[in-house]
Design a protein that fits this description.
The complex is a heterotrimer of chains A (553), B (291) and C (314). Chain A is α/β, with parallel strands linked by helices and 553 residues long. Chain A is 33% helix and 25% strand. In chain A, helix 4 packs across helix 6, helix 7 crosses helix 19 and helix 14 packs across helix 15. Chain B contains 12 helices and no strands. The longest helix of chain B is centred in the last third of the chain and has 37 residues. Chain C starts with a helix and ends with a helix. With 314 residues, chain C is mostly helical. Chain C is built from 14 helices and no strands. The longest helix of chain C has 36 residues. The relative contact order of chain C is 0.14. The chains are: A alpha/beta (553), B mainly alpha (291), C mainly alpha (314). At the B-C interface, helix 6, helix 7, helix 10, helix 11 and helix 12 of B face helix 1, helix 6, helix 7, helix 8 and helix 11 of C.
C-alpha cells in the first residue's frame, strides 16, 4: 500500500522578478513501511517539496496543479483546519537545525505534553508517555529530563528529543529534512541507526531529505533525485546508485570524492562526461633527503583559553600539546570533529592565536617570538584560507580590491597590481569581469576561488586551508579541490588542510593527523591510515564517514 | 550561497535605485515633504515673513490668526509665524551640530572600545552606563542650574547623552566584526590595525549608525524645545519653538493659538524626520528594523 | 541564580558610584559653582566666599570629592539653602507623586502596546498592521511635553472632560486617578509606540524560528503557537525596554508635572532652579538616577526569572 503518492506537482512562487517555478511535475510514491530518500543539491526544491506536503508553503507560494495523496486523502484540497488535524498524528517532521527546533522557554515535558493536546487523558499519563518516548530515543533519565529545558541538552540529544516528539503520536509518515547534517559524523551514525530502529518499531514510512549520498545509500530503500525543481530519477536505492540512468545522477555520483576508491590527484567534476573519468594516481611521496630542514616545526604546541567571569574563571584546553613537521611542498591533513582543536592549531601556527606552551617555528624562526616587523615579513610566506567562502571576504570591497589587498598591505611596489590581480583571477578560473563584483554577488564556489587567489597572491611557501570545501555542494567541491591540487603542485606549496571529511582529505594530503580533544591520536601516511587505522577514534571516524554509495554491494 | 546573493543590503545597488525606493514609499515621501517644508521655512524665513521675529509691537498683542498674522501674535505683539520660521533655524542648528559632533566622538570611542584592550573596553562601558543612568532632563537641569540657561549647555547635554549610545553600537558591531573571518583574513595577511579599522570595519558599521543618528534628530529637537519651554534653553528674545510653546502655555485658556503655534512646528519636524528616517533605514538596512 | 543576583547588584552599586563621581566632576569642572548659584549674580565676592567656606567648597578637590561621595552614600545630599531641611527628606516627600505618574505611564504603554504589537504581527501586512506601524512611529516622534500641552488644551480647556491641574484630593483615590489620566498619558504615549513596535518585530522574528515551524509541523493549534509559544518569548525584550523607558519617563515626568501643575520631583527641581537651590537639584538627580539603576536591576532580574536560558548561564 502507498502512504504518500505525489503526481505532477507544480508549485510556483510569486516574486518581485515574476513567478518562480519551484517544483515542476514532481512525482513519486512513498510505500508503506519504507524509507524514501530525496537527494539534491541546494536550490533543487527539496524544502519547497516538504512545505508543500505539510501545507506550510510561504504566503507567496501555491500549488498550481498536481496532487498530493496521503493515506487516501487529497492534501492539496484540504482546508487548513483539516490539514492541521493531520499534522502531528499522521504526518510529522524533523528539521535540520537541532539548536532551534525546540522552544527555548518551555520545558521538554511541557512541549511534549502540548503535542498530545488532542488527548483527553490526565497529565500524568501524558508525561508517562513522553518519558517512554525519551527512553526510546535513549535520553538518559527520561523522568527528570522532562523537567529540563532544551538548552540543557547537547545538540545530538536535542535532535533525538525532536525525533521523539515527531514520533510521539505514531504518525504514518515522518518527514526528515537533513536531520543529521548539523551533527558530527559519529553522532550522525548513532542518530541514523536510532531513526531506522524507531521506524521499524512504529511501522511508519519516512521521507528522508539529504544532500549526502552516503547517508541516503545507507538508510533508504528507495530514492528520488531532484535537480532544479524536477525529479530526474527514481527507483530502488541500490539500482539507482549502481546504474544511474539520468546524466545528472551519474555525474553527481561520480563527483562524490567518497566514490573514488583510489586516491587521485584530480577529482571528477560535473563537467566530466559520466564514465569518462580516469583517476590520476598519486605519485608516491618522495623520500626526504637526509638533513632536509622542515618548513614548519611544531613542538608540543599548547593553547588554553581562559573563559568565564570575574567570579568564575576556568581554563579550557584548545590544543593540548601536539608536534609535527611539515616539509616544503608537502600537504598534511588535519582531521577531527568540531571542537577537536584543528582550527585553533591552525590559527596558532599563523600566530593569530597565542600559544600557552611549546613552540612553532617556520624556517627555523620561532613564530611566536618574532618582532612585529619580522612577523609582518613572515606573513608573506604563510597565507590562510577560511571556512566561510563568502564571510572571509570583506563585504564592502570589490573582488579586485580583495585580490589586490595582499600587495597593498605589503607595499609590493615592483609589480603592476592591476595586471597581477587579473593574472591571479584568471589563474583561479575567474574572468576579468569579476573584479568589479562584491562578495555577496558570488556563489560559494566563486567566492572560494577568490579566497584561493588571495592566498597565493604573494607566492607563499605555506597555505593553511581551514575547511576549504565545507558548505559547498558536492559538484563544486571537486572543482575547488582540483584547483588547490593543481596550484599546489605548480607552485610547490606546502599546505595544512583542515577538514572533518576524511574522503576529501584523502585525495589531497600526503599525511594525515587525526585530532581528538586537542591532541593527535594518530599521524601517518594517508594510505596507511586508510588501510590500517590504529587508534579507536580513527576507526570510529572512518566508519562514521559513511561509505560512498558506490561501495554498496 | 543563494542566501548571500539575496542579501538586501547590496552596497552597489546604486544610490539612485535606493532613492527611488524611498520615493516609492508614501510615508517616506510624506516625511521628506515635511522636512523640506521645515528646512525651506528656516532658510527663507526672512523672505517668507516681513515681521521681525523679536520686534515688540504692544498695540498688536494677542491677535488671533488672520491674513496679516497667519498664526496670530503673542503677548508682546510679535508675529508668531515669523517666530516659528526663525525658531526652525535654532532647532535645525542645534540638531545638526550636536548630532554631528556626537557621531564623530561616538565613532572614535566605539572603535577604541571595540578593538582596543579588554580593560579599556570595560572601563568605557562602565562610563557609558553611568552616563546613561542619569535621566536626560535631570542631567540637563543640573547643568543649566550651574551654567545658567544657554544653547551651548543644551548642546553639551545632547552630546553627552548621545555619545554613549552611538559608541555602544559601534563597539558591539566592531567586536562582532573583529572575530569575523574577513578581519581574521586581513590579519593573517599582516594588515595593520588602522587599515583594518579603516577598510574592513568602519565601512561596515557606519551606515547603520548614520541612519540611527538621523532618527535621533527629532529627539534632539525635542530636547532643545523642551529646555527652551522651561526657559532654560535659548534666551529671550531669540525665537525658539519651545519658548513660543511656553508663552502659549502661560496663556492657554485665553489665547490657545499661541500654544498651537508653538507645538505644530515641533510635531511637523519630528514626524517628518522620523518618517523619513524610518523609510531610509528600511531601504538601506532592513536588518535594523524594530530597533 | 544567586550568583547572578549578586553580580547584577554589585554592578548596579558600581554604576551608581561612577554616576556620583561624574556628577561631582560636572559640578567641579563646569563654570559656576553652587555657592555663586545660590547667591545670584548680584552677590558680592565676600558673600560668595563666606558661603563657599560654609559649603566646604574651599577645601582641596579630593576632600570635597570624598565629602560629597561619602555623605551621598549615607543618604546625605546636603541641606536645602532656604529652609535648611535635609535635601533627602524634601526629595523623598515628592517621590511618590512621580512614581505614581510613571506607574501610570507604564500602564498605558504596556496595556496598549503589547496587544497592538501582537495584533499587528498576527495580521502582518494588513491595513491594520500598517496603521499600527505608522501610529507607533508617530507617537514615538512627538515629544511628551507637546503631547501634554495639546492634551491639556483639548481634554481640559476645550472639552473640560478631565481636570487640568493638581494631583487630586489627598485620600480620595478616585479623584487622584482621574487627575492621573492625562499626565500619565503624556508620559506613556510614546512608549505605547515603542512597545508595540518592539513586540511586533520580535513576534515576527520568533514566528520565523524553526521551533515554531516544528510546532506547526506537529499540528499544534494556532492560538497555542501564537500565545504560548511565540508571545511568551516575544514579550521578554519588553521588560528590558521598559527598564530603559522608565529613565525617559522620568524626564517626561518633569514636563508633565509642570504642565499639569502636579507635585513631584520634576516640579521640585524646576522650582529649585528658579530659587537657585542647587543642593535640591543635585539631590534629585542622584535619587532619580539611583531609582533608574534600581529599575534596570529589577528588569534584568525579572528577565532572569522568566527566561531559563539566562537563568542558567550564570
Amino acid at each position: 500500500m502507498t502512504v504518500l503518492s505525489i503526481s505532477d506537482l507544480n508549485v510556483r512562487f510569486a516574486t518581485e522578478a515574476g513567478a518562480f517555478h519551484a517544483l515542476k511535475d514532481v512525482a513519486f510514491d512513498v510505500p508503506e513501511r519504507t524509507i524514501v530518500g530525496i537527494v539534491g543539491e541546494s536550490g533543487s526544491g527539496k524544502s519547497t517539496l516538504i512545505n508543500a506536503i505539510l501545507g506550510l508553503l510561504a504566503d507567496n507560494g501555491r500549488v498550481d496543479s498536481g496532487s498530493i495523496l496521503f493515506e487516501g486523502q487529497e492534501l492539496t484540497a484540504l482546508d487548513p483546519v483539516a490539514m492541521r488535524a493531520l499534522r502531528g498524528p499522521r504526518i510529522s517532521c524533523v528539521f535540520q537545525d537541532p539548536m532551534g527546533a525546540l522552544n527555548p522557554v518551555l520545558s521538554v515535558g511541557r512541549q511534549m505534553r502540548n503535542i498530545q493536546y488532542r488527548d483527553e487523558s490526565p497529565n500524568a499519563q501524558k508525561d508517562a508517555r513522553s518519558a517512554e518516548m525519551l527512553e526510546a530515543v535513549r535520553i538518559p533519565n527520561p523522568g527528570t529530563a522532562l523537567a529540563r529545558y532544551p538548552h540543557e541538552f547537547s545538540g545530538g540529544m536535542k535532535q533525538r528529543i525532536a525525533i521523539a516528539m515527531a514520533l510521539m503520536m505514531r504518525p504514518g509518515l515522518l518527514i526528515a529534512d537533513e536531520p543529521t547534517t548539523a551533527l558530527d559524523a559519529t553522532l550522525e551514525v548513532v542518530t541514523l541507526e536510532l531513526l531506522k530502529d524507531l521506524q521499524e518499531q512504529i511501522g511508519c514510512s519516512v521521507l528522508f531529505i539529504s544532500h549526502h549520498l552516503g547517508v541516503i545509500a545507507e538508510l533508504c530503500d528507495e530514492v528520488a533525485v531532484m535537480y532544479a525543481g524536477e525529479v530526474v530519477e527514481r527507483g530502488a536505492t541500490s539500482e539507482v546508485f549502481r546504474d544511474p540512468r539520468h546524466d545528472y545522477t551519474a555525474r553527481l555520483l561520480e563527483c562524490d570524492p567518497a566514490n573514488q576508491r583510489r586516491r587521485t590527484r584530480r577529482l571528477p567534476t560535473m563537467n566530466d562526461e559520466p564514465g569518462s573519468f580516469v583517476p590520476q594516481p598519486v605519485p608516491p611521496a618522495p623520500d626526504r633527503a637526509v638533513g632536509e630542514k622542515p618548513l614548519l616545526e611544531v613542538r608540543d604546541a599548547q593553547v588554553t583559553f581562559r573563559v568565564g567571569t570575574l567570579f568564575r574563571r576556568e581554563s579550557i584546553v584548545g590544543v593540548g600539546g601536539v608536534s609535527f613537521d611539515l616539509y616544503p611542498g608537502e600537504t598534511i591533513g588535519l582531521v577531527g570533529e568540531s571542537g577537536s582543536g584543528k582550527t585553533t592549531l591552525a590559527r596558532a601556527a599563523a600566530r593569530l592565536q597565542a600559544i600557552s606552551g611549546g613552540s612553532i617555528s617556520f624556517e627555523g624562526k620561532s613564530v611566536h617570538e618574532l618582532s612585529a616587523g619580522a612577523m609582518h615579513l613572515l606573513r608573506r610566506d604563510v597565507s590562510m584560507m577560511f571556512q566561510d567562502p563568502v564571510g572571509s571576504l570583506s563585504p564592502r570591497m570589490t573582488v579586485g580590491d580583495l585580490v589586490a589587498e595582499p600587495f597593498r598591505i605589503h607595499r609590493v611596489g615592483d609589480v603592476d597590481v592591476k595586471a597581477e590581480t587579473m593574472r591571479l583571477l584568471s589563474l583561479v578560473g575567474l574572468g576579468p569581469d569579476f573584479a568589479d563584483r562584491f562578495p555577496h554577488q558570488l556563489s560559494g564556489g566563486q567566492a572560494r576561488r577568490v579566497g584561493v587567489a588571495r592566498a597565493i597572491a604573494l607566492n607563499p611557501k605555506l597555505i593553511i586551508a581551514d575547511e576549504p570545501t565545507a558548505g559547498l555542494d558536492v559538484s563544486i567541491q571537486g572543482e575547488v579541490l582540483n584547483l588547490l591540487n593543481d596550484l599546489r603542485e605548480r607552485l610547490g606549496l606546502a599546505m595544512i588542510f583542515i577538514t572533518h571529511n576524511l574522503h576529501v582529505v584523502r585525495h589531497v594530503a600526503d599525511r594525515i593527523a587525526v585530532m581528538y580533544r586537542g591532541r593527535f591520536v594518530e599521524i601517518g601516511e594517508t594510505d596507511e591510515i586508510f588501510a590500517a587505522p590504529e587508534h579507536d577514534y580513527t576507526k570510529t571516524l572512518l566508519s562514521a564517514n559513511l561509505a560512498g554509495p558506490g561501495r554498496q554491494p | 550561497m543563494s542566501e548571500a546573493a539575496s542579501d538586501p543590503r547590496t552596497p552597489n545597488d546604486g544610490l539612485r535605485s535606493q532613492v527611488r525606493k524611498v520615493l516609492r514609499e508614501p510615508l517616506g515621501v510624506f516625511g521628506l515633504a515635511l522636512v523640506a517644508l521645515v528646512v525651506l521655512g528656516a532658510v527663507f524665513a526672512g523672505v517668507l515673513s516681513q515681521y521681525d521675529p523679536a520686534g515688540l509691537n504692544p498695540r498688536d498683542r494677542f491677535l488671533p490668526p488672520s491674513t496679516d498674522h497667519l498664526l496670530g501674535t503673542d503677548q508682546l505683539g510679535r508675529d508668531l509665524f515669523s517666530r516659528v520660521l526663525h525658531g526652525g533655524r535654532i532647532a535645525l542648528y542645534v540638531a545638526l551640530v550636536s548630532t554631528g559632533i556626537s557621531l564623530a566622538i561616538g565613532i572614535v570611542l566605539g572603535l577604541i572600545a571595540g578593538y582596543g584592550p579588554r580593560w579599556l573596553d570595560n572601563l568605557m562601558i562602565l562610563l557609558f552606563d553611568a552616563i546613561k543612568s542619569f535621566p536626560t532632563v535631570m542631567l540637563a537641569l543640573a547643568l543649566v542650574t550651574l551654567t545658567g540657561p544657554s544653547l551651548t549647555a543644551v548642546m553639551v547635554v545632547v552630546i553627552l547623552v548621545n555619545v554613549p549610545g552611538y559608541a555602544r553600537i559601534i563597539r558591539t558591531q566592531t567586536i562582532a566584526l573583529k572575530s569575523s573571518e574577513f578581519v581574521t583574513a586581513a590579519q593573517s595577511m599582516g594588515a595593520s590595525t588602522t587599515r583594518i579599522l579603516r577598510l574592513h570595519i568602519l565601512p561596515n558599521v557606519i551606515g547603520p549608525l548614520v541612519i540611527l543618528a538621523s532618527m535621533d534628530i527629532p529627539v534632539v529637537i525635542a530636547i532643545e524645545a523642551g529646555m527652551s519651554f522651561l526657559g532654560l534653553g535659548v534666551r529671550p528674545p531669540t525665537p525658539s519653538w519651545g519658548s513660543i510653546l511656553n508663552d502659549g502655555f502661560a496663556n492657554i485658556r485665553e489665547t490657545p493659538w499661541i500654544a498651537v503655534a508653538g507645538g505644530l512646528p515641533i510635531i511637523i519636524t519630528t514626524l517628518g524626520f522620523t518618517f523619513l528616517g524610518e523609510t531610509l533605514r528600511d531601504v538601506f538596512d532592513p536588518r535594523l528594523k524594530g530597533r | 541564580m544567586l550568583a547572578y543576583v549578586v553580580k547584577r547588584l554589585g554592578l548596579s552599586v558600581v554604576i551608581v558610584s561612577v554616576a556620583m563621581a561624574l556628577l561631582f566632576c560636572m559640578i567641579y569642572l563646569v563654570p559656576g559653582d553652587p555657592a555663586s548659584v545660590a547667591l545670584g549674580p548680584r552677590a558680592s565676592e565676600a558673600m560668595k566666599e563666606a558661603l563657599r567656606v560654609r559649603m566646604g567648597l574651599d577645601q582641596p578637590v579630593w576632600v570635597q570629592f570624598w565629602n560629597f561621595y561619602s555623605s551621598a552614600w549615607r543618604g546625605d545630599f546636603g541641606v536645602e539653602v532656604l529652609s535648611e531641611r535635609p535635601v533627602i527628606d524634601v526629595v523623598l516627600e515628592q517621590l511618590p507623586y512621580t512614581l505614581a505618574l510613571i506607574a501610570g505611564g507604564i500602564t498605558w504603554s504596556v496595556g496598549l502596546g503589547i496587544p497592538l504589537g501582537c495584533w499587528a504581527a498576527v495580521k502582518r501586512g494588513s491595513l491594520a498592521d500598517r496603521l499600527v506601524g505608522v501610529l507607533s512611529v508617530a507617537v514615538i516622534a512627538i515629544p511628551s511635553f507637546v503631547v501634554a500641552i495639546y492634551a491639556l488644551l483639548i481634554f481640559s480647556v476645550s472639552l473640560r472632560w478631565l481636570p487640568a491641574i493638581g494631583a487630586g484630593e489627598p485620600g480620595d483615590l478616585g479623584d487622584q486617578l482621574v487627575h492621573l489620566i492625562l499626565p500619565s498619558l503624556a508620559v506613556g504615549l510614546g512608549w505605547v509606540g515603542y512597545i508595540a513596535r518592539m513586540v511586533r518585530a520580535s513576534m515576527l522574528e520568533v514566528l520565523e524560528t524553526s521551533h515554531i515551524r516544528t510546532a506547526r509541523a506537529f499540528g499544534l493549534p494556532e492560538p497555542m503557537i501564537t500565545y504560548r509559544y511565540a508571545l511568551t518569548i516575544a514579550i521578554l525584550p519588553t521588560v528590558t525596554l521598559l527598564g530603559v523607558g522608565v529613565g525617559q519617563m522620568l524626564s517626561s515626568a518633569v514636563f508633565a508635572e509642570i504642565v499639569f501643575a502636579r507635585p513631584g520631583i520634576g516640579r521640585l527641581v524646576y522650582d529649585a532652579i528658579l530659587t537657585r537651590n542647587f543642593p535640591v537639584v543635585s539631590g534629585a538627580v542622584l535619587v532619580t538616577t539611583i531609582f533608574f539603576v534600581l529599575v534596570n536591576l529589577i528588569a534584568d532580574l525579572v528577565i532572569g526569572a522568566l527566561d531559563p536560558r539566562v537563568r542558567s548561564s550564570f
